[in-house]
Design brief:
With about 290 residues, this protein is of the alpha/beta class. The chain contains 11 helices and 7 strands. Strand 6, helix 10 and strand 7 form a beta-alpha-beta unit. Helix 2 runs parallel beside helix 10 and helix 6 packs parallel to helix 8. The longest helix is centred in the first third of the chain and has 48 residues.
Length: about 290
């Protein structure tokens, strides 16, 4: 059958006419340049007004936040004062915190509460990874060989806890020399602590070894009669609180906040439970009656 080009030409003409009519109608409905400029100016003014309003609102919120922060800090200071008087506390960091202010803030809070911080022991990355070469050197230097079924990290953790609870310094200082642990400059391992604060919380599974180090250490310390509290910052990517809870010790999962430091002091003073913001917490803080007891 021959192609009827007249039909196709008619279709093209119809489409062209429709497009042309659409353009002409659109031009007729479009605002004039003056109207367009007025609309743009109005939108700019509305934007400026909204921006200024939001800026004032943000400034007000920032001021309220500063006032709230001052109130919180002063209230916490008043509540924790002398809560840990005559209490010796050893701090163990289950990893190196670098420039993180958490360890210093915890030490300051404990001292503000009247506690004597006997030592601050930091588990290094060499202890956590414990390569075969490092393990061999440490075994030879310290004559430490784990019995069958006991991991080398666990053996060292237990021995550290034994020395901490007994007020002995030799092994910990030897481990310091091997690079497995670090210590704060003012640490005095000859002072037997009454309590221990275990500080954990990981950024990745390879950043700490809580089952191999923290758990046996907690078990050894509690077995020696020390009050042990396990804590981590609320920003911890991987929580160790379930491991600490399984060990049967009080926990705090927001140690990097004023409220968390308050909970830590009260937990070291005798408040049992699990405090913080995460699913593992029983409540945000210890009960209010405990705060009022003197």
């Amino acid at each position: 059958m021959p192609i009827d080009y007249r039909y196709h030409i008619g279709s093209f003409v119809a489409i062209f006419v429709a497009l042309l009519l659409g353009i002409l109608i659109g031009i007729g409905l479009a605002p004039s340049p003056e109207e367009f400029e007025d609309s743009v100016a109005m939108l700019k003014e509305e934007y400026r007004e909204t921006r200024d309003y939001r800026a004032e609102e943000i400034a007000g919120l920032e001021e309220e936040n500063r006032e709230y922060d001052m109130l919180t800090r002063e209230t916490v200071s008043a509540v924790i004062e002398d809560r840990l008087a005559d209490t010796r506390v050893a701090i163990v960091l289950d990893r190196e915190f670098g420039q993180d202010p958490l360890p210093d803030n915890l030490r300051a809070a404990l001292k503000q509460a009247g506690a004597t911080v006997t030592s601050t022991t930091i588990i290094t990355s060499d202890f956590i990874t414990l390569t075969a070469e490092v393990r061999r050197k440490v075994s030879q230097r310290l004559t430490l060989y784990p019995p069958p079924g006991v991991h080398f990290r666990t053996l060292i953790a237990q021995r550290i806890a034994e020395d901490l609870s007994a007020g002995r310094a030799d092994l910990i200082l030897d481990l310091h020399a091997t690079g497995l642990v670090k210590s704060a400059a003012d640490s005095d391992y000859t002072l037997r602590p009454d309590a221990a604060l275990i500080v954990g919380g990981m950024a990745s599974p390879s950043a700490a070894a809580p089952e191999r180090i923290d758990l046996p250490m907690i078990q050894e310390l509690t077995g020696a009669g020390l009050r042990v509290v396990g804590v981590e910052p609320k920003t911890a990517e991987i929580s160790v609180i379930p491991i600490y809870k399984a060990a049967g010790v009080p926990t705090v999962d927001h140690a990097d906040t004023p409220a968390g430091r308050l909970a830590i002091v009260l937990a070291l003073a005798g408040a049992d439970g699990h405090y913080g913001l995460k699913e593992t917490a029983d409540s945000f803080l210890p009960p209010v009656p405990a705060l009022l007891d003197q």
